[in-house]
Amino acid sequence: MAVKSPCIDVCAFDGQTRLCVGCFRTLDEIRAWKKMTDHRRHQVINDRARRQAKLQRESSELTAH
């Protein structure tokens, strides 16, 4: 079964992290998605979950100070 794209149609990139603020993927990952194997797609999905958690932690630390 093909891995569904995490795109949520909020295609805007954060200037600092260079990640899409909607799906937390890099531009290279977005461009390559259709040609990736399902294994690689799962890796990207796992990476984006970690990226999202990291950005949320950093954001909450900035607002706490």
Classify the secondary structure makeup into a structural class. mainly alpha
Give the termini separation: 45 Å
Average the pLDDT over all residues and give the rounded result: 90
**Radius of gyration, in angstroms, nearest whole number:** 13 Å
Runs in which pLDDT lies below 50 for 5 or more consecutive residues are: none
Largest sheet composition: none
Order of helices and strands: HH
Beta-strand residue percentage:
under 5%
The percentage helix is 40-55%
Outline type: elongated
Number of strands: 0
Task: Tally the helices.
Answer: 2
Describe the protein's topology.
Elements: H1 27-32, H2 38-64
Give your account of this protein's structure:
With 65 residues, the protein is an all-alpha fold. The protein has a domain at 36-64. The protein is built from two helices and no strands. It has helices at 27-32, 38-64. The N and C termini lie far apart (45 Å). The relative contact order is 0.16. The model has no long low-confidence stretch (mean pLDDT 90).
Please name the defining characteristics of this protein.
single chain; 65 residues; mainly alpha; 2 helices; 0% strand; elongated
In short:
With 65 residues, this protein is mainly alpha-helical. It has helices at residues 27-32, 38-64.
